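Researcher: I'd like a structural prediction for the single chain below. Treat it as a standalone chain; there are no partners to consider.
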Amino acid sequence: MKDKVYRHHLRIAVIYFCVAAVLGLLLRSYPIFSFRFNYRYMVHTHSHIALLGWVYVALTTLLHYGFVEKQSVSKRYKQLFWGTQGTLIGMLLTFPFQGYALFSIIFSTLFLIMSYFFTYHFWKNIDPKLKDSKGLKCVKTALVFMVVSSIGPWVLGIIMNTIGAQSIWYRLSIYFYLHFQYNGWMILALIGLFIYALEQRGLEIPNKSFNRFFLSLNLGIVFTFFLSTLWTDPPTVFYILSGIGAISQLYALTYFWSHTKNDVTVLSLSRTQSGILKVGVALGLIKVMLQLLTVIPYFTRIAATYLDFTIGYLHLTFLGVISLGLFFFMDYFGLMNISKKSYLWYVSGFILSEILIFSKGLFAWMGIATFPGYTEVLALSTLLIPLSLFLMLLKKRPNA
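Model: Treating it as a single chain, here is the predicted structure.
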């Protein structure tokens, strides 16, 4: 019964992903069909449902499944889950029509409050058998970063009502939120789940190795926030701190993978699971290498000037590293079947769209026009993503 509840909740998360993917397809098709919706409002809807509907719901479900006492799925957890759905539906019904305005802000604020309640609930109901788990240590730290990230939206409201949305502090508060969401909360929580999976198979990471990784990674998470400030042309010290953060994060992740890659065999992965994990790790390496590259002022200016590079990087992180990580654990824990076909369709759509997005930025940097039919090809490649998600929803796990 417990697993059935979690399977149901993860299917809801994937439905949100479908909705976000369809909205993304509409945005890609906007120049082709001249839709009459407000483009900026739809961007807000797309990003909120992808980040909060898909990633947050899937990740919190997996964390609750792995780390909370297993006797039953508590009434409080169900209340938190459905309360959160109310805030998400509210955002879905308000953002497309008003953007950031009274009702969408109310639902966004209520979502933040629900996330605080979840954090408290999780912390109070951790399975006592896992109190010494290194995976749990990562997850608890990830939840702290999630709460810290929410400073961004709270400050954003103050900025909008005082110095205005044209201030650099407006963008910095958004970047603060996004940075500690994907680097601090989401990726660290996924690493915690990976360590938990190894621990469940009897594999213990030596304390010395784990502490070196853990301290380096968290130093990297904090200091790489300064990468988000470099577009303001700050003093040299900000570049130095950004460089320390990028190097620290690269070192932590490569050190961790080098010490655990040979232990992955204990997980007895299927071919599809192994493929998802390898692609996710490779994309993670590309992500941290791009971070290191943008420490160099020349590349900082390029990233700040050509929006497609930023969009490509964010999609690399969310659609690549984080979403593939979620797919891996959903399938590994037996909570949802990620078939080979749906996975290949998803990866094909993701890679093709990434190539096209980064190519557009590259063409703009070189002063070259994109090829004829670029917009149509990008929309078609994007279409593969919602189709792959529909396939996942249609494929039921045996005995589910």
